Amino acid sequence: MLEQVFAQIQQLLGTVNEMQQIVVQQEQTITQLQAQQSAPPPAVPVTDRGPKMAPPPYYDGSMASCEAFINACRIYIAAKPRDFGNVTAKIMWILSYMQTGMAQQFRDSFLVYMQSPEYQTKFIQTAMGVDPIEILYRNIYQAFRDPNKQAMAILELTTMKQGSKSAEEHVQCFKQAYGCSGYQETAGIHELKRSLNTPLLDKCMSVPKLLTTLNKWYELVIQLDRQWRQAVVEKKQTQRNWQVPANQQNQPQQWRPPTQPVQRDPNAMQVDRNRGAFRCYNCGQTGHMACNCPNPWNQQMCLMNAWNGGTDDDREELWRMVTGGSSTAGVV
């Protein structure tokens, strides 16, 4: 009987010990929870995504924009390295911008090539220090580059004219063509002078000491062109702001009486109205003179009538008028 009681006491003591351990564990848990609530939340790491970059333009396989497309892809990948997990992601991203023209054919062919063992060896299992993306860039450049780039640059350089462009714009175009032409600096200076507008070239040639380097020529051309354009702007501004002098604006105008019209004499130019009409001495008609007589034959008839019907004195006077002064009359 005592043994049973002693066994029950042992069981109760064991149960008490277990309950004490549970209480201790619960107190530790409560303490940890209180500590977590009082502590500030852990800072969330911010992923550095870098600056916002413009994606490259879609490429159609043209020779003129081949290098521009490659450079745009190179810039974006270098600025956003965390956007690409591996080499395959970079290659797929570049091929996604080759969607039209000959570039689309290159993309489709390269996708087939990616399934070959050669692709794994050349692009995936590359040696240390070899960038497989640069290999892709070289393949794109070899497929779409301009084989006559230097010849085209020389043609552009030798036919270039400034025209309506400013000096800054013209110099930038000249630099681009000159860099691909392979010309020496002396030949470049000659072509630059030839391409300038005549007024600007005259100003450059009037410099006391001519320049011998292209960079100095670039600076001189831009400086003189800016001065000329600034002078034109200031001249227009001066003409726009020109005003009449104050002494002319404030000068009062003198009053002048209205001008009376001059009255004409009603009898003016009427002197000849009292004169009779002209009478011809040949035919005796009015309206014309003897010098304009339409019937000169009547003159002879009048003379005969005056001779036959006149007196001796009349005949002498008529004879004198006809003969020019002789006093001896003939017999008719």
UniProtKB/TrEMBL annotation:
Keyword RNA-binding applies: no
InterPro entries in the record: Znf_CCHC, Znf_CCHC_sf
UniProt signal peptide: none
Pfam families: zf-CCHC (PF00098)
Residue spans of biased composition, Low complexity class: 242-264
Domain CCHC-type: 279-295
Gene Ontology annotations of biological process type: mRNA processing
Top-level taxon of the source organism: Eukaryota
Region (Disordered): 239-266
GO MF, any single term: zinc ion binding
Annotated PROSITE patterns: ZF_CCHC
Keywords of the record: Metal-binding, mRNA processing, Zinc, Zinc-finger
Name of this protein: CCHC-type domain-containing protein
